[in-house]
Amino acid sequence: MSPRRQLLRIYRSGLDAVSGRRSVREALARRDFAGPVHLIALGKAAQAMAEGAFDQLEERIVRGLIVTKHGHADPAVWRQRPVQLLEAAHPVPAESSLAAGAALLEFIAATPADAQCLLLLSGGASSLVEVLPSGATVDDLQRLNHHLLASGLDIRAINRLRRACSLIKGGRLAQWLAPRPVLALLISDVEGDDPAVIGSGPVTASSDAPVAPEELPAELRHLLVTEPAPRPDDPVFGRIELEIVARNADALRAAAERARALGLPVYQHPEFLRGEAAELGVLLAQQLLAGPPGVHLWGGEPTVTLPARPGRGGRMQALALAAAQVLAGRQDALLLAAGTDGSDGPTEDAGALVDGGTIDRCRAAGHDPVQALAAADAGTALAASGDLIATGPTGTNVMDLVIGWRQ
Fold first, then answer.
1. Mean pLDDT, residues 275-280
2. CATH number, domain containing residue 43
């Protein structure tokens, strides 16, 4: 088996271990539900997580609401089931996100006060579902998110500001759900697996310091919610139980197991990947070349600071293209960098698998990799070199995996 195929198999094993369907099914198999269940699934992995719930609970689910990213759902799956399926915008929210927020509140209002609720939450929910303060518009929301996504802030800092401008984030959804008993199963897409950060923490009290108006541009400050979010001791959290069912560490563990099964030495690097993706690409490629032969694994979620008019690609494509410049001309090293949700930034490619010939292939196709990185256009260069990875929606979202191989 070629090294490229080996790396793709290792990556796929990591994805399989954190499948939303599998993770939810196994979590529910450890529990005993009595009576009817009302299901809410929000996020990029919402369809897969909801399928896992139906696998285990079957007809006990009497009604459900699923909100996921456009293209991440199969309506045929739900035609014969008591489920309302909505697709909304990601990574920048749109009118569909506000429509989903309104549908969520309507669904909760129609749920009996003593009914068992099952909340399935995964990354992307912050953009997909929103309820704004009175007077705010979808244009305001889009300006806020464009500002945040281009800021270079990490996901924690971004979600802190999102929570401050929402009527359902930062524990506020718990106010709508109370007094109903809620089991929330979460797939973590954040460092530290903090439920208050996943999906902007709709049913978890936040320990955020208050957001000062000057932390937002002047034209966005009217979005700040003036009423304080519920604190950890608020009674609205009294009947909410949370469990994280999949995380980045689970994917890394499974990837390591697959590499060992293929007979390869494995070196798992403990540092969480954060910061500018292109800088990390250089650093990781240098570590790979300086390290022992075998498979090297990293996990995390870098960021990209975007120019005014970014090109094609996301953080993993930027990291991969930067790494390819270090690996140029080498015959003994490859590096795969990909998201676990099947998309990288505003693209439908998960990432890229680069080698010592990537840069030559880019240039032969008329693309300058240095200029591509500066223009946030790594995806165009990597498409020309034939190194992009396309998985389609994966049914999970546990941040990013970087897998290096050195002969």
1. 96
2. 3.40.50.10180
